[in-house]
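Chapter review: from sequence to fold.
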Amino acid sequence: MTYPIGWPAGVRLLRFDSLESTNEEARRLAASGDSGPVWITAREQTKGRGRRGNTWISQPGNLFATLLMTAPHASAPQLGFAASLAAADVVASYASQVRVTLKWPNDVLLDGWKVAGILLEALNRDALAVGIGINLLNHPEGTETPAISVDAATGRAVAADDALATLAARFTAWYAVWQGQGFAGLKPHWLQRASGLGQPIRARLPHSEIEGVFEDLDHDGALLLRAMNAGLTRITAAEVFLSEGVP
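The token string follows.
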């Protein structure tokens, strides 16, 4: 196996032409006793998945990758912030920093449009799949959250292998921050890129919706929303929609 320049030491890489999904391959490896760390990537996904059971439309030329690693399952949501920071770093290496923002909990936006997403899945024992998809050359049309690709936004055709090498290096760096400082080390960096902070948002919960101002992140990454004439509401899982015009 030839590793890309700058590939993090001690981390393996598995490349495939086609997979059902990189997260499913991570699940298979974990079931066989592999605990990683190993990045799994494929040129094509036939059944890509997103958060909350959504389909991740896997168009050719984009990056589909999953890191199989060991981490306490209780800490998995915090590592989603490390993953979104790493994915944002990848996108920002091809676009200006100010154009790249983050939407809670772990979407990456480019010019306010979704360019990358993360799917965390707890596997057997302490195995964790950190799935990341980045729209490099193509993006789906007609999605509930409008999407864009790096190429469409910048005119730069980015090779998936190049983006993966940057992603692996940046996740390793953010993971080291989390190991040393916990979520407190990630929080200020995430908030610097936060889209909608201090603005009205709408949070879709499993059985209801709530509107209010995105005030802050809690100590563990939960969203703190201040509803009208109410105190802070702590939200640990939801689909968030930004107000029109919020970058």
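Two observations follow directly from the output. The longest helix spans residues 160-181. The radius of gyration is 17 Å.
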